Amino acid sequence: MKFDTPATTNPIDRLKVIGQPTDRIEGPLKTCGQAPYAYEQHEAAQHQAYGFMVGSAIAKGRITRMDLDQARAAPGVLAIVTAANAGKLGKGKYNAAHLLAGPEVQHYHQAVALVVAETFEQARAAAQLVHVEYSVDKGRFDLAAVRDQGVEPKDELPDVRHGDFDTAFAAAAVQFDQTYSTPDQSHAMMEPHATLAAWQGDHLTLWTSNQMIAWSVGDIAATLGLPKDKVRLISPYIGGGFGGKLFIRADAILAALGARLASRPVKVALARPQMANNTTHRPATLQRIRLGATTDGKLTAIAHEGWSGNLAEGKVELAAQPSQLLYAGENRLVSMRLAPLDLPEGNAMRAPGEAPGLMVLEIAMDEMAEKLKLDPIQFRILNDTQVDPVKTERPFSRRRLIECLQTGAEHFGWDKRNATPGTRREGRWLIGMGVAAAIRNNLLVKSGAKVRLERDGKITVETDMTDIGTGSYTIIAQTAAEMMGVELADVTVHLGDSNFPVSSGSGGQFGANCSTAGVYAACMKLREAVTKKLGMTEGEAVFAEGHVQLGSRQVPLRNAAQNGAIEAEDSIEFADLAKQYQQSTFGAHFVEVAVDAFTGEVRVRRMLAVCSAGRILNPKTARSQVIGAMTMGVGAALMEELAVDKRLGFFVNHDLAGYEVPVHADIPHQEVIFLDETDPISSPMKAKGVGELGICGVSAAVANAIYNATGARVREYPITLDKILDSLPPMI
Amino acid sequence: MNDHPPSGLSRRRFLILGAVTATAFALPPFISLKAYAAHLEQPAMANVTFEVNGKPQALEVDNRTTLLDALREHLHLTGSKKGCDHGQCGACTVIVDGRRINSCLTLAVMQDGAKVTTVEGLGLPDRLHPMQAAFIKHDGYQCGYCTPGQICSAVAALKEIRDGIPSHASPSLTEPPQLITSELQERMSGNICRCGAYSNIIEAISEVAEVSA
Amino acid sequence: MRAFNYSRADSPAAAAQAALAQGTRFIAGGTNLLDLMKLGIETPQQLIDINHLGLDQTEATPEGGLRIGALVRNTDLAADPRVRKDYALLSRALLAGASGQLRNMATTAGNLLQRTRCPYFYDTNQACNKRTPGSGCAAMGGVTRQLGIIGVSDACIATHPSDMAIALRALDAQIETLNPDGNTRRIAMADFHSLPGSTPHIETALTPGELITGVTLPAPIGGTHIYHKVRDRSSYAFALVSVGLILQKDGSGRVAVGGIAPKPWRVEAAETLLPQGAKAVSARLLDGATPTPDNRFKVTLVERTLASVLAQARDEA
Fold first, then answer.
1. Which residue of chain B is at minimal alpha-carbon distance from C76?
2. Contacts of C106 (CB under 8 A, 6+ apart)
3. In chain B, whose CA is at the least distance from the CA of A187?
4. C281/A contact by beta carbon, under 8 A
5. C-alpha span between A4 and A514 (Å, rounded)
6. Which of A494, A510, A656, C22 could form a disulfide with A443 if both were Cys (CB 3.0 to 4.6 A apart)?
């Protein structure tokens, strides 16, 4: 199905199932420990052996010698994979660094070997007996030191120069110029990257934990030099991804190589302390914001320049991107520079670009509002735009940022905020409120599904879409139930198998809208087949309550399949509505913090997000996406930082004790308001995404609240207490 | 060579298989260090008996096998999750002899004779434990990987409050702890949820706590 | 993790005797030892399980104090009514540490014997004089925000991570041990943990095979007890700085500080300055500190946290 004109009334609009806050359909499995994740596929293959990865001890250089004798002689060892016996390996389209090092080492903890043994304990013990000698090359590990070597990422974000920024900024009555930094961050999903690999002849099956099945089939094939049709990926449950499982990682390739060498199915999970340096991370950024405005607060000049680093084939972190679209202003400079670094590979993490970009831009807006003596909400409202500021002929499909801000302000009690920092105190706590705007673009990706009407009248959906905690199982079932007019319980959903039609996959908050739109397309085709079978082709049949009705004729749906199941497959393909309209989601984040006046410890007391994101397919799971993203935003604001050893070139705090993420005690009750809306420009579902919108801006709202509480304006994330101490009131 | 443990040291059923039956301290000095290391790599095995979810289980495990791996890899009870294997996340939380612990940081051999309850023992899809039902109702999970640990932890944490065990969040050490949000948040802080379902998890636990109080 | 032999000890004497052998470790809660064994940092050849020695009772001493068995779990010790009433600092310190699950496993003796959480110690690719004597210290000049500012040496700047130990130091606890030869001794908390000097791998006063059997607390000294642990998140994290305070009505008191040194940091001479306030006490406590640029803030933080607990103690008194 081609989606080339805005959606009109369609079966989804009935909202009998879609739009309802139903419980997750896989909930009983997950809460009872019955949902099998990648490392738990005991039934999938017989005689599974265990692989344990050995990571490089250096950041950059060459392996000069490997002594495997001791490891080979260790009990239970079946095989040891190294570059020397792995055969020729290619590199996946989505990987910057090789997944197996040797002789060249590109980053710390890059895999240098996999030890395969009968048991996990034996594999781990033998891995500690692998001796590797290296020659170390000098690497570049400090972004600030190499920022001037940055180049324009012409394929990803060529410089946006609109109007004449320099002149307008110079002429602006009120000017603002500050530089900020955001650190490297780790996805730190709870389930480590894991894969079970089994060969049947030249055919490889991988049970793995992966967000993008079709991408990864291609990359596994490319890496191992196999035809794509010889690779099958199965990924029914994924213990979190956040972008860290968009791509195949070392576990998948090493498991496949290990299984080949050992002639046994082999399973591999990365050990937690290996993950931060072996896999990808959100790259650190430096960002400079310049704003020029009239005295009454109209922005006339906006410059957002950013720098990030990566390995040679890695991408830039598009942190400056949101400044293309978020605010009006006739003169604009948006640019990123990509500098060479020899740290582990930087790549997408939840809301890449927007998340670190808004961490900075939305502090700058708070600072500028103060300079203009304007309320920060008022300042943002003043500079709203309903069109793409750079291509003004291009309207936003829906943009209700002002309503988000106003609704939130009223709900949160924004009028009780004192604009003067450090003025509200409750005992030893300094109290402050902060706000930030959120924008995250709505990406549209082709997505397919197969839908079957079974003989018993029930519906089965198959698609390679993944559920990484996002609620895909549930909203896909809801979509099929709505379309076919059956109960939710009558729909079975199978996901995450490369034998199924290719979907959008899970990423970029496009999964919910695109994958359900693909199911919609397949269901439209199935409806056609059903009406044809039932001889109800004259006019538009209604599918409801297990029946098909046309005029006065009503037939049970199952009758159509009484002689055999009916199957239909289709995908949604998006035409160029995205060119005519800028499609984005919007939000406003409100945060209240308490800061210990003695120690600078920060406690988040209240949080509210107001979101404008098209139709909400399931308010319960959508809300969970938003609060989860808000939680990650609190982590980014207050504690998350992969600490770089700039001499040795690695992330030092590479486990969950060292890389702190929020715990229960850090997170208060969180509120989410979804504005009631649909966006017919986006898809037949009239939905957009929320999973990344929720993290956009929230860290800046925390930062702004800390400023309001204490007067400490911290421009280097994370805002740990050591950066606040000197701004706190003197001790009694 | 001395094959006998000093008096009072009991091997009981923890028989050591393989070539080396001597304990390390009895090793004669002429064995080269390399050979010594190789000898020691022979897995020492043990027979362990414990009760898991009400069912007696007898296993022969490597001494190095954690309780978590015994459950997951030997008994195929994969509800208990391995998130970090170092006591830093709580995904492996199970209840042993009435108390929640990190099953990744104890050896199976150390739990000989213990009574272990995993998430599978609390309830199954057709007969959910009230805590499991509450997690579903309040959407107290997303990817589901930390969820079994959260649920085991929550069940045990409520018992700890009932048993009067104080926490960091208890305003007073001399009064019994109360069933309040701040207590639940503190007591659940050893269970990390990267999806960020905390707010919903606390609502789920609160509902169960009120019902059972 | 290297293969090891495992046995359960039935008596403290047998345990101590067995532990004389090279490469032998006692295992109790296992929360730190197994963590380190998995990483290849601890490589015992023999584990003696001491969980069944009956050392899990807390009882009153004839002197009016408490004797805490070596194997009393952190949860039970924190919840003991006598500890909550008379040694609140100890309860509070225990409850500020780790998580509910870990406190259910961790023992009194094991808590004392925790090793540092220095990330370079934890990464076997990195030089570490504590892990591999003579290999150097990768932490110096690296990421040191969490590391020590006082009591450290040219060989090691790691801190001791225990919260419980801070309280025991302030309470003048004594460690009871049993030696393989059958002799027992008591070691004052002040002398139990060693400063690194040129031998950072030597962390305590224990001799080979010596088994901790218990910890004794002197009779209660009253006062207001406050433990404030400052960390980067609200729970389940190691301290940046922690301050344990016992303040008497007359203004005298005791202060021990965590997160800054290789052992619980207490300077009795600084306590005499308590009436002068946090600044004076802190200056004396930290006299001779050698912070790095990354952890210089700890100097300020100790002072401000001390001010906070003093204010709180005065409010509560």
1. B165
2. C29, C31, C73, C74, C98
3. B194
4. no
5. 14
6. A510
List C-alpha distances in Å: A241 to A189, A247, A464, A629, B183. Answer: 6, 10, 16, 13, 30
String of b and e for C170-195 (b: at least 16 CB within 10 Å)? bbbbbbbbbbbeeeeeebebeebbbb
Say yes or no: A482 and A620 in one domain: no
pLDDT beneath 70: ranges in chain A: 732
Q: Does residue A318 sit within a domain? A: no
**Which of A247, A278, A309 is at the close of a domain?**
A278
Number of domains in chain A: 3
Can you say whether the dihedral through the CA atoms of A71, A74, A77, A79 is positive or negative?
positive
Spell out which residues of chain B touch residue A31, defining contact as CB-CB under 8 Å.
119, 128, 132-133, 135-136, 141, 144, 147-148, 151
- Tokens linked to B213: 């109080």
Taking CB atoms and an 8 Å cut-off, how many pairs form between chains B and C? 168
Chain C CB contacts of B174 below 8 Å = 84-85
Enclosing domain of residue A716:
372-440+583-727
CA distance B101 to A295: 61
Same domain, A414 and A488: no
Same domain, A134 and A255: yes
Report which secondary-structure segment, H or E, holds B209: helix B198-212
- The reply to whether A333 falls in a domain is no
Amino acid at position A725, single letter = L
Do A511 and A398 have their domain in common? no
**A606: number of Cβ within 10 Å:** 17
Tell me if A173 is assigned to some domain. no
Q: Reply yes or no on whether A692 is catalytic.
A: yes
Q: Is B33 on the interface with C (CB under 8 A)?
A: no
Q: Read off the pLDDT of residues A263-290 as tens digits, 9 standing for 90 and up.
A: 999 999 999 999 999 999 999 999 999 9
| Residues of chain A with a CB closer than 8 angstroms to some CB in chain C | 57-58, 75, 121, 124-125, 128, 273, 428, 596, 598-601, 603, 638-639, 643-645, 647-648, 652-655, 657-658, 660, 662-666, 720-722, 725-726, 728, 731-732
Residues A8 and A68 reside in one and the same domain = no
Q: Which chains touch C (3 or more CB pairs under 8 A)?
A: A, B
Residue A39 near chain B (CB below 8 Å): yes
CB B186 within 8 A of CB A603: no
Claim to verify: residue A531 and residue A470 sit in the same structural domain: yes
pLDDT of residue B2: 40
Phi, psi dihedral angles at A276 (to 5 degrees): -60, -40
Q: Which domains does chain B have, with CATH numbers?
A: 11-41 (no CATH), 45-122 (3.10.20.30), 130-212 (1.10.150.120)
**What chain A residue is nearest to B124 in terms of C-alpha separation?**
A32
pLDDT tens for residues A575-610? 999 999 999 999 999 999 999 999 999 999 999 999
Residue located via tokens 């600078």:
A600
Looking at chain B from residue 136 to 165, which residues have their Cβ under 8 Å from any Cβ of chain C?
153, 156-157, 160, 164-165
Burial label for A133, CB within 10 Å (0-12, 13-18, 19+), is exposed
* Binding partners of A (≥3 Cβ pairs within 8 A): B, C
Quick check: is A19 in a domain? yes
- Asked whether residue A568 falls in the same domain as residue A614, the answer is no
Please count the helices (runs of H) and the strands (runs of E) in chain C.
12, 11
A624 and A723 in one domain?
A: yes
Q: List the structure tokens of A452.
A: 């079957």
Q: Mean pLDDT, chain C, as a whole number? A: 97
CATH of the domain at A511: 3.30.365.10
CB contact under 8 A, A648 and C279: no
Give SS3 for A629: helix
User: Where among A231, A255, A278 does a domain terminate?
Assistant: A278
pLDDT at B41: 54
Q: How many residues does chain A have?
A: 732
